[in-house]
Design goal:
This protein is an alpha+beta fold. Helix content is about 40%, strand content about 20%. The chain is built from 8 helices and 7 strands; from the N terminus they run αααβββαβαβαβααβ.
């Protein structure tokens, strides 16, 4: 595990650059509050992040017992012929490091984690992408829990510009996904609009 101490600090001013007419984080909050299943939450996150970043996106569910990522849903200009091929094993120490980042208010990047990068190259021939851990927050799950990974295929200026808003979306999705899966809906909360307090770790290499 390598930490280059290059964290990203989202700001309210940056988030306004995405769209003066649309608040993607608020749209996500409204949709997840009405959701009746984890699949609806995954779909909302993938669709809205795809529109915001102008990129195809993939959401991978994390099975804690099997320590395995499996493809849950996709959005944008992409077609998956055999979703069963899209799986990646997450070592226990990686799970713990990702959740450790979340404890510090950071979002870990897994785009350089071997099984994830190999999967993307082998099945989509994509080497440059973003893969952000989706975790719950302590007030929902006691301690942060990894629930999935969101992949943004077209990593670039637009996806980087989207990060302040994306941080709120990942938090909200992580909380509701954990709550739905573990039947603790009374412990979910909505993230207030404003300056996100999450730091991205875009240059952290997990190997």
């Amino acid at each position: 595990f390598k930490n280059n101490n290059a964290s990203f600090n989202p700001s309210a001013n940056n988030s306004q650059k995405i769209s003066v007419h649309r608040d993607y984080a608020e749209e996500l909050t409204a949709r997840v509050k009405q959701s009746t299943s984890p699949e609806e939450i995954e779909k909302a996150l993938a669709q809205l992040s795809s529109e915001m970043s102008e990129s195809a996106t993939l959401f991978f569910r994390y099975n804690r017992r099997l320590q395995n990522l499996t493809l849950g849903t996709v959005a944008g200009a992409i077609q998956i012929q055999n979703s069963a091929l899209f799986q990646a094993y997450i070592r226990k120490d990686i799970e713990e490091q990702v959740e450790g980042f979340a404890t510090e208010g950071k979002i870990a990047s897994l785009n350089n984690y071997g099984p994830v990068s190999k999967m993307m190259i082998a099945h989509l021939n994509v080497a440059h992408f973003e893969a952000w851990a989706v975790t719950s927050e302590p007030d929902v799950s006691g301690t942060p829990k990894l629930v999935g990974v969101l992949v943004i295929l077209n990593a670039g200026f637009r996806s980087a510009q989207s990060r302040p808003v994306l941080s709120r979306m990942l938090k909200e999705s992580g909380n509701y996904l954990y709550a739905h899966t573990n039947k603790v809906m009374n412990r979910t909360r909505s993230i207030r609009p404003g300056t996100p307090n999450t730091n991205f770790e875009p240059n952290s290499t997990i190997v």
